[in-house]
Amino acid sequence: MAKKKSLCTKEFTQLKKLPTDSKSLAIDFERYLTRHLGRFVGCVPFYLYEALSLTLRDHIMTDWRNTWKAYEVKGVKKAYYMSLEFLIGRSLGNHILNLGINSELKSAMQQFALELEEIITEEHDAGLGNGGLGRLAACFMDSCATLKLPVVGYGIRYEYGMFRQVIKDGYQIEEPDHWLRDNNPWELERPEYTQIIKFGGRVEMITNHNRKPHVVWVDTEDILAIPYDVPISGYKNNTVNTLRLWSATATNVFSLEDFNAGSYSDAVEAKNKAEHISMVLYPNDASENGKELRLKQQYFLASASLQDVLRMWSINEGNDFSKFASENVFQMNDTHPTIAVAELMRLLIDEHYLSWDDAWAITSQTMAYTNHTLLPEALEKWPVSLFENLLPRLLQIIYEINARFLKQVSSKWPGDINRQIRMSIIEEGDVKFVRMAYLAIAGSFSVNGVAALHSQLLTEGLFRDFYELWPEKFNNKTNGVTPRRWVAHSNPLMTTLISEKIGDNWINEFKNISQLKQYADNRPFAKLWHKVKTENKKRLAELIKSECNVDFDVNSLFDVQVKRIHEYKRQLLNILHVIHLYNRIKRGDTDNWTNRCVLIGGKAAPGYRLAKSIIKLTNNIADVINNDPQIGNKLKLAFIPNYGVSKMEIICPGTDLSEQISTAGKEASGTGNMKFMMNGAVTIGTYDGANIEILDAVGNENFFLFGLKADEVEARRHNYQPENIINEDDDLKQVMHLLTCGHFNSFETGIFDEIISSLLNPHDPWLTLADFRSYIDAQEKVSRAYQDRDGWLKMSINNTACSGHFSTDRTMQEYNKDIWKLDS
Ligand code: 26Q
Q1: Which position among 393, 435, 569, 805 bears the catalytic label?
Q2: Rounded distance, CA 70 to CA 74, Å?
Q3: Read out DSSP for 580-649?
Q4: I want to staple 84 with a disulfide (CB 3.0 to 4.6 A). Which of 336, 404, 478, 568 is the partner?
Q5: Known catalytic residue: 671?
Q6: What is the pLDDT, as a whole number, of residue 312?
């Protein structure tokens, strides 16, 4: 749809609030259900969800419009959070919480004999992300709205989100997640703000109207980017921010030329090809290099978003960019959108006729980059040849950025050729690559890691050369999670209990959760805390029963590790401990036993063979343990299929023990660790990522620390002999024997060989066996601690009480103070 001039000349007035009493809500709900959707109360429940969402949306629309107008009128500085992933999960429950109309809606639904809670769970998760990085983006959006920060999220509206994981014969099967098949009431299509994105073609030099040479990018294949806006409501503050997701489509729905020439299928194919770009989220959470479609997605997002921002800028400022850098800032979520650095240069120079120097001043003052990984193999690089074909003009610009950048390097370190080779944005060799992280650092005024250790290791290792050149760019912003979704929404019982004691302003002033500390020793309070935990464990046990058909007894210790399956996260170490416990029961070593239910969950990237074997191994071991009458309630193991945001909302409130056991120095931050902590779980963890800050906050007596530290891991690599470790540790010897003799794969010979050899490999990058003894000992301490119920409850309350630092409200305030500098 072409944008036309408005027909209305009237000034903007604030939209009025709609009534939120239960009677009005019931009327609206019934109208949407019967008159709009044409359904009735006894229909397929999804329509009840849809009608209720439309009811609520009316209220959100008011605040949405008023918020946007307020930002526009004030002409405030804005931040744009660019991310290939936004893992939002469900929205309805979250909006109800934020609007503060839960009880009104509950009674409105009761008028139709409907349960609000059941309707809420009809919503499909918006699974537009892989894991930590995508969920972080969603938590950030929530906090910015709650803090009234003018932040717009930019992402891709994938037709298919993260795959659905089904377990068949113990193996992971991936099924497509067509989450948009039914209507999505939480998006508003905005065809009037469509952008054109160019690919391919060639670059030409022309003489422009001022007789100056000017570069044009011609003969391109163009694709349309259509925005869909998703409302992000703040907590009880009348603020609704925007997440703008781009969807790809062909420029002409069908090429008329092809169509008339009779090649209908060619015309359809062009449309299909264009739509591929936003078809599916890449399901790996460590970079998979070289996939052309992924680079197209990245450029599609960067270009559409930047053009959108420039479009809005030009409405008021025309071609005057003198104040652009002081009123706009872009935060790039990892290297995925960092082609934006070159694209902003292109748009300013080619489309808005700025000089290189002016364009560079703007770009390098508005771009900021967050790194989320220390694994060198996860650093994105793209073949130069791919750029040549797909984005020739951007490659030219990258070369120019690199030439100027290397000049700076050589003037600081004259003659240090090796340093130039190391730091070059272009990796030389038979196949040349563009190093996206280096482009991001060169083009940004801020580079941050996501936990203290991670940020420190970046400056000492991966980005050391860059730190030496520009120390002032580097900073840390420890991650967080939003206490609205992860406590108030997912743990209503605990929320009520806490609010009865300390009032309810901890929900948006989360540091106040520390007032709970005074109750850690209070027996009547601890009793209530225990009751809440037990109820939450019941809810989790029901989920496990229905999803895994395994019985979890609420009196047992609930020991949970849910996250993406990765060698560095060491689900294998957890499994070795489970085998060890099984073995102890079998050999009768069960004095003072603590019953345990171990839950593991997470998706493996479809191409990651070893991770998939870990899932199969978990399921095989679970089969043996859960069906052995001698084991009974002493030990249970379950693998929960299709772990995601909505599952976590039930899992984290019901967890006693949170497993954060990555090889030290490898987990950038972790955020699951924070969700568990807030919900009163105690952590068993290595000295890694944000675990360190969690330990700092709760103290040694409320945390089970084990394992090598990051520097010890590096030192140990030179002297790591797994065979010796096994020979010197009887428990480990027995565990490895059970694994290697085929006890868990009697009719499936050899299927775990790859796992076994990874453990036995002296070059195992994750040094799993090096931490075995220390882990087993820490687990034994956990078991003993759990038997002292009062002591455990005290630890649990303390964990929640000390979690104040881990709210994304704090994280966002730090981004704003140090990087964005928006006034709220
Ligand atoms: C890159 C290129 C091509 C295809 C996929 C990717 C890709 C996609 C996702 C690379 C990485 C990711 C995701 C990374 C991630 O989730 N990292 C996690 O970020 C969290 C938030 O900061 C941290 O808490 C975790 O420690 C970190 O592992």
Answers
A1: 569
A2: 6
A3: HHHHHHHTT--TT---EEEEEE----TT-HHHHHHHHHHHHHHHHHHT-TTTGGGEEEEEESS--HHHHH
A4: 336
A5: yes
A6: 96
State which of 85, 130, 677 you would mutate to test the pocket of ligand 1, scoring each by most atoms of that ligand within 8 A of its C-beta.
130
Ligand 1 surroundings by CB, under 6 angstroms: 130-133, 136, 282, 284-288, 294, 336, 372-373, 378, 380, 450, 479, 667-671, 689
Helices vs strands, H then E, count in the chain: 33, 25
Average pLDDT over residues 752-780: 98
Q: Give the whole-angstrom CA distance, residue 175 versus residue 177.
A: 6
User: What separation in Å is there between the alpha carbon of 442 and the centre of ligand 1?
Assistant: 21
Residue of higher predicted confidence among 713 and 259: 713
Instruction: Compute the distance from residue 85 Cα to the ligand 1 centre, in Å.
Output: 9
Supply φ then ψ for residue 204, to 5 degrees.
-130, 150
Residue 221 φ then ψ, to 5°: -95, 120
Ligand 1 pocket test: pick from 133, 336, 377, 434 the residue with the most ligand atoms within 8 Å of its Cβ. 133
187-206 burial by CB neighbour count: b if 16+ within 10 A, else e? bbeeeebbbebbbebeeeee
Contact 158, 246 (CB under 8 A): no
pLDDT exceeds cutoff 80 at 75: no
Q: Which of 95, 352, 372, 666 is catalytic?
A: 372
Q: Which of 373, 454, 479 to mutate to test the pocket of ligand 1 (most atoms within 8 A of CB)?
A: 373
Backbone angles phi, psi at 229, to 5 degrees: -95, 135
Q: Exactly one of 563, 603, 612, 666 is catalytic; which is it?
A: 563
Q: How far is the CA of 437 from the centre of ligand 1 (A)?
A: 14
Q: Say which of 59, 78, 564, 580 is annotated catalytic.
A: 564
Ligand 1 center from residue 335 Cα (angstroms): 10
Cross-strand pairs, 128? 86
Q: Is the pTM for the entire model greater than 0.90?
A: yes
Atom of ligand 1 nearest to the CA of 291: 3
How far is 362 from 324, CA to CA, in rounded Å?
7
- Whole-number Å distance between alpha carbons of 285 and 156: 16
Candidate from 59-73, 513-527, 572-586 with smallest mean pLDDT: 59-73
220 is catalytic: no
Residue nearest to atom 24 of ligand 1 (CA): 670
- 569 in active site: yes
User: Cα of 791 to ligand 1 centre, how many Å?
Assistant: 37
Pairing label, strands 682-685, 657-660: parallel
DSSP alpha helices (H): ranges in 347-489?
A: 356-366, 384-390, 392-412, 417-423, 436-443, 452-460, 464-469, 483
Amino acid in position 396 = Q
Cα(818) to ligand 1 centroid in Å equals: 23
For residue 285, report the distance from its CA to the centre of ligand 1, in Å: 5
Atom 1 of ligand 1 has which residue's CA nearest to it? 287
Q: Is 562 helix (H, G, I), strand (E, B) or coil?
A: strand
Beta strands 151-156 and 188-189 are unpaired
Cβ–Cβ under 8 Å, residues 465 and 419: yes
Both tokens of residue 373?
């990984």
Exposed / middle / buried, residue 346 (Cβ in 10 Å: 0-12, 13-18, 19+): buried
Please provide the DSSP assignment of 223-235 as one string.
Answer: EEEEEEEEEEE-S
Q: What are phi and psi of 528, to 5 degrees?
A: -65, -40
- pLDDT, residue 286, reads 84
311 is catalytic: no
pLDDT digits (tens, 9 = 90+) for 115-171: 999 999 999 999 999 999 999 999 999 999 999 999 999 999 999 999 999 999 999
- Cβ atoms of 83 and 154 within 8 Å: the answer is yes
**Atom 3, ligand 1: which residue's CA is nearest?**
287
User: pLDDT tens digits for 393-418?
Assistant: 999 999 999 999 999 999 999 999 99
